[in-house]
Amino acid sequence: MTAITPELLTEIRARFAHVETCPFTGPRVFFENAGGALTLTSVVETSARFAAIPDNQGRDNPASAALGEIIAKAREDAALFLGADAGKVFVGESGTELLFRLIADACLGTPGGVVLGSTVEHPASRSACARWAEVSGKRHVLVPHDDATGTVTPEAYAAAVTGDVRVATILHTSPVTGMSMDVPGIVAAIRAKAPEALIVVDGIQHACHGGIDIASYDIDGYVISPYKVFSRHGYGLAWASDRLSGLRHDALIGAPEGNWELGTRDTGAYATFSDVVEYFEWLGGEVSGESDPRARIAAAGRAIHDHEAALTRAMLHGTGNLPGLAEMAGVTVVGGVDNPAREGLVSFYADGQASPDLVAALADQGIRVHTRKADHYSGNILAPLGQADCVRVSLCHYNTEAEVAAFLAAMQRILG
Questions:
Q1: Whole-prediction pTM value?
Q2: What are the extents of the domains in the chain?
Q3: Which element (helix H / strand E) includes 8?
Q4: Aminotransferase class V domain spans which residues (predicted)?
């Protein structure tokens, strides 16, 4: 397998909209990918094309039949991207809404017992578990994460799991620390004591970094937000196992068994996810000699991981004659400097500097980053550290080392 070369990186960047320029403010470096990745130009074109189509699915006309075929293909493409060889793929309002639905059905479809999650999780899954554990008469137990590394381990789950765990949730990657969890290891720890538990994974932050293999996880649900993986806002995408799909859930009277979707869905949303999968296949073909589509997607994921790891190393340890964040006086990196779990994201804070002020100062120098505050979104990570806020710098594989250098130079000027 070959790396993402400068020449290939130029081709990659040409496939995305607004890579170097914000349509509202002008030239900028985009390091806010965890808040929503850049959009493929093919997705923009597909969205416009399908927005103009007046027909709907389920009608007796050729246009309607074509829409049905596009949706069927998109489901197959999504299953290929996710590495799922069974179960159902469907879209909903958002990733958060789909997590709520999967978790609600898992809780309501199982008797008593425990809903097991962790303190590292995003409030999407934690809030759903808290609500539906109460409604279904279950206890909600949270496995504590390690504040120093920003991760929760299989060993921590193993210490907390009991035989009466009915539902369990796992965060694949944290949008605050950027750290990825050992999903197969955590699943094995849960299954060792609660083999029948329904396990739902929040993959929203992980998906753009590649490397999803549902068939190897032994789970029951996986959710992503396509706007964070090069598609657009307005829909979420979920996979549910046959076991989870077989439970009772919200459905129209007389509707087919196991159908998750309520009402007519946007064919364009499905079609844009096919664009995403096609992009991963193209990239995998550029970095490997693979011809099989799934093997190409896997190769793309490895190349993405390696490129982003190189960018985060440069951000932490410097590039050229520019010192990295780890060498800047008064700067603390959330989750530690050399953390192998990190995926394309660095969060930090600086002594004597309010993070919102740093974000504004970076914006003035053309660097787009984001503030994470100790609120309902990020308080679970920041409050134990005694931090009111931090700066989140989130990278993607279309970012360049020159952009990292621009960020470090701006930080030098700001910190003096």
A1: 0.96
A2: 6-43+295-415, 51-277
A3: helix 6-14
A4: 29-250, 323-407
Parallel/antiparallel/unpaired status of strands 331-333 and 345-350 = antiparallel
Band of the pLDDT at 1, cuts 50, 70, 90?
A: low
- Alpha-helical segments (H) within 365-400: 379-382
CATH number of 51-277: 3.40.640.10
**How far is residue 220 from each of residues 83, 239, 322, measured CA to CA in Å?**
13, 8, 46
6-43+295-415, superfamily in CATH? Aspartate Aminotransferase, domain 1 (3.90.1150.10)
Mean pLDDT for the stretch of residues 324-336:
96
Q: What DSSP designation does 61 have?
A: S
In the chain, the amino acid numbered 52 is A
Over residues 128-156, mean pLDDT: 96
User: Do 141 and 115 contact (CB within 8 A), yes or no?
Assistant: yes
Distance of alpha carbon 232 from the chain centroid: 14
Q: Are 379 and 147 in contact (CB under 8 A)?
A: no
Task: Say if residues 219 and 202 touch (Cβ distance below 8 Å).
Answer: no
CB 1 within 8 A of CB 386: no
Strands in 125-178 per DSSP E: 139-143, 165-171
Instruction: Give residue 253's pLDDT.
Output: 87
Q: How far is Cα 263 from Cα 267, in angstroms, rounded to an integer?
A: 12
Radius of gyration over every alpha carbon of the chain, rounded to an integer in angstroms: 22
- Residue 30: enclosing H or E segment and its boundaries? strand 29-30
**Range with lowest mean pLDDT among 180-184, 226-230, 259-263, 397-401:** 259-263
